[in-house]
Amino acid sequence: MKQSLEQLREEFRYEKTNSCVQCGYCLPVCPTYITMGKETHSPRGRINLVKMVGEGKITDLSVLEEPLDLCLGCRACETACPTGVEYGSILEAARAALVRRKKFSAPVRLLRKAMFQKVFPNRKIMKFTGNAFWLYEKSGLQKAGRTSGAMKRLPNHLGDFEAIMPQAVSPAERKKTPNRVKAKGEKKYTVAFFTGCIMDAMFQRINRLSVQLLAEAGCEVIVVPKQTCCGALHSHSGEMEETKRLAKQNITAFEQAGVDFIVNNAGGCGAMLYEYGHLLEDDKEWADRAAAFSAKSRDISQVLVSCGGLSNLHTYPGELVTYQRSCHMTNVQKVTSEPLDLLNSVSGIRFIEMEQADMCCGSAGIYNIINYDASMDILDRKMKDTKATGASVIITTNPGCLLQMKLGIEREKLSESVRAMHLIEYLAEAAGIS
Q: Which cofactors (predicted)?
């Protein structure tokens, strides 16, 4: 029993729970505690559950599954914590420990293996997925599915998400994407662009615009060919060994580029890249290499601001704009001012900060698919604050947040007067780049 308890303490990072003094400062910033009102669904409640496992007071680990599954992983609690509790590390370890012990049904086990090991990490499959969605649009299948009502009968409310997906990029346009783009004018930096998996498949236009804007700002941009998925979805799902494998593949690929920065345009991906140093800190062979990689990782807004911003940006005079902050950009990468600096450089804009701007929108990777009702409760609160600004444009910096806010616009029946855009889309529009 003693050996087993020691093993549990190590797996669940029990020693890190001792930093939590149960003060409750995390409660007002936790979206699930606010919407569910349960102590077990708060940061300190979840930490206490892990602590009880480490002390042998909880032996049925299934008790932890729902509280941990319903955590968004937004990490807002870390910014509010006065004692510096490493909640993200505790959550990551606990989820991985539960997954190692969980007996999934054969279909679920096979699906997880296929998605995490074969689909997300494979750039060819992800591009095929994007091309297939384009064919689905152009063939008339999309129109037929929507008009017939078939989309509404899809499981897990997938029809709701299908209705807000961005317009797909054609295979021919994908092939035009260059692997290297020279800087416009004086070169300020040489950067490697991280394409991501979902971003490359479904938001390829934002990736293309990102490369163009970086070049406009004075960056020579390299698209590293052997890069892969960042591993964020794997980490959130407790698949830590696969997360580490993907991290090592990316580190190896980007090391050879010899660039000033590794640039991403998705808050969730950026947070994962930023934490490679933490992820591999106990691996003697990879720790220094991972730390060096993380030190070069930047959100695109940081690099654009470092270059001096973009010139000749303008929009309709008086256009009301608000900004939905990416939790992982704010709470993990600590990137807060740069997106606002870029927005405020657009002439004609009227920026209005929403109440509780740092509160999660409820997207959290695929949380809004697997925990739809909980996610919608959080989204409805977010939309209340968003509507109060009167903004006609909602800016985001993460693909999940972008889809979630589009869904919120549809739920509030505001599609005729409000649009949600990625920051890069808005800046490109303001610069006259299509």
A: [4Fe-4S] cluster
Q: pTM above 0.85?
A: yes
Q: Which residues of the chain are in CATH 1.10.1060.10 domains?
A: 2-101
Those residues with Cβ within 8 angstroms of residue 306's Cβ, 6 or more apart along the chain or in another chain: 188, 189
Q: Name 424's Cβ contacts closer than 8 Å, sequence gap at least 6.
A: 206, 209, 210, 213, 265, 300
In the chain, list all ranges with CATH 3.40.50.
176-303, 306-430
Task: Look at the domain 176-303 and name its fold.
Answer: Rossmann fold (3.40.50)
The DSSP element (H or E) to which 291 belongs, if any, is helix 287-296
Strand order in the sheet with 419-422: 347-351, 314-323, 393-396, 419-422
The candidate with the shortest Cα–Cα distance to 379, out of 397, 395, 364, 399, is 364
* Integer Cα distance of 233 and 73 in angstroms: 11
Burial of 79 (0-12, 13-18, 19+ CB in 10 A): middle
Distances (CA, A) of 127 to 198, 272, 434: 9, 22, 21
Looking at residue 345, its amino acid is S
**CATH no. for 306-430:** 3.40.50
Rg for the chain (alpha carbons), in Å? Answer: 22
Q: List per-residue pLDDT tens for the chain, 434 residues long.
A: 455 889 999 999 999 999 999 999 999 999 999 999 999 999 999 999 999 999 999 999 999 999 999 999 999 999 999 999 999 999 999 999 999 999 999 999 999 999 999 999 999 999 999 999 999 999 999 999 999 988 888 888 889 999 999 999 999 999 888 899 999 999 999 999 999 999 999 999 999 999 999 999 999 999 999 999 999 999 999 999 999 999 999 999 999 899 999 999 999 999 999 999 999 999 999 999 999 999 999 999 999 999 999 999 999 999 999 999 999 999 999 999 999 999 999 999 999 999 999 999 999 988 999 999 999 999 999 999 999 999 999 999 999 999 999 999 999 999 999 999 999 999 999 999 98
Amino acid at 183: A
